[in-house]
């Protein structure tokens, strides 16, 4: 048997093993998902437009699904839906670099299997709400539009990743199905949504802030410029306003939106954080409280959601564009 014969045989094996459990998300097939447990389907959060969506199975059956648990910043959601007798896919181990993998999709209700290599690991990209997602695997398996949320599998059809972001030049990023990922999916399936703290501001990067301050004659300061404040958000309640410069949070200097996320994630069980704000040339410290925000219902999508083929923001966002936090 030649190498081509072996690869063809492996592709047919994968299609037979994975096809029944791979589903189409949305009426127009804007995304892909797959069965992870009886009555549970995993897909990308950016494939949703509401807290319900249609799921179409391999046999053409369509069912209405509801959100079981969602991690909007991690771009994952588990749906409650009648999976009938469809068997869940098995988990494998996150694929190392140079491994042969297969990417599977059912976007537009058309089933596809493509072959590729893991071309890199530990890539980072931004999810639909601007947070950095670290540790992804980069691969070369071609994906059609509507394939995001679909599984990346090994030659035995075991899930080693979930396709999430297209990065151009024929490369794609998938979240690796490691032990932490599997635990997160299990929590979502059990109805435990992931709520990450957010200030509720749109910010411009430090470079833009320096230019704008210089243009109006203000002293040079490093920090992140507040371009907008969400009404009723923790930032709004603390008195942070449009035009303010955020220079530190929790005692850590702020030079990028990732610094804000790091400071918020480091709070643990704490409900407040001290933020240093410069308004004009006057510096002050405000206490931002998340006690009220903790009870809010997390949203599965945002106005910044990527287009239907599942592409997210680039690995490094354009420096002159505001970023939400």
| Spatial gap, N to C terminus | 55 Å
Radius of gyration: 21 Å
Average pLDDT figure: 88
Roughly what percent helix?
10-25%
Would you tell me which CATH topology of the largest domain applies? Thrombin, subunit H
CATH class of the largest domain: Mainly Beta
Number of strands: 19
Class from secondary-structure proportions: alpha+beta
Query: How would a textbook summarize the main sheet?
Result: 7 strands, antiparallel
Which residue ranges are poorly predicted, with pLDDT under 50 across at least 5 consecutive positions?
295-324
CATH architecture of the largest domain: Beta Barrel
Number of domains: 2
General form: elongated
Note the run of SSEs as H and E.
HEEEEEEEEEEEEHEHEHEEHEEE
Fraction of residues in β-strands? 35-45%
Short description:
With 325 residues, the protein is α+β, with helices and mostly antiparallel strands. 16% of the residues lie in helices and 36% in strands.
Which features would summarize this protein structure in a list?
325 residues, alpha+beta, Pdz3 Domain, 2 domains, elongated
Describe the fold and architecture:
This protein is α+β, with helices and mostly antiparallel strands. It has two domains: 1-196, Thrombin, subunit H (Beta Barrel); 201-292, Pdz3 Domain. Helix content is 16%, strand content 36%. It contains five helices and 19 strands. The chain has helices at 3-18, 179-189, 206-215, 234-238, 257-265; strands at 22-25, 31-37, 40-43, 52-56, 62-71, 76-80, 100-105, 112-126, 132-139, 151-153, 159-168, 171-176, 201-204, 224-229, 245-249, 252-253, 272-279, 282-289, 323-324. The strands form three sheets. Strands 13, 14, 15, 16, 17, 18 and 19 form a seven-stranded antiparallel β-sheet that branches. It has a six-stranded antiparallel β-barrel with strand order 1-2-3-6-5-4. Strand 17 and strand 18 form a beta hairpin.
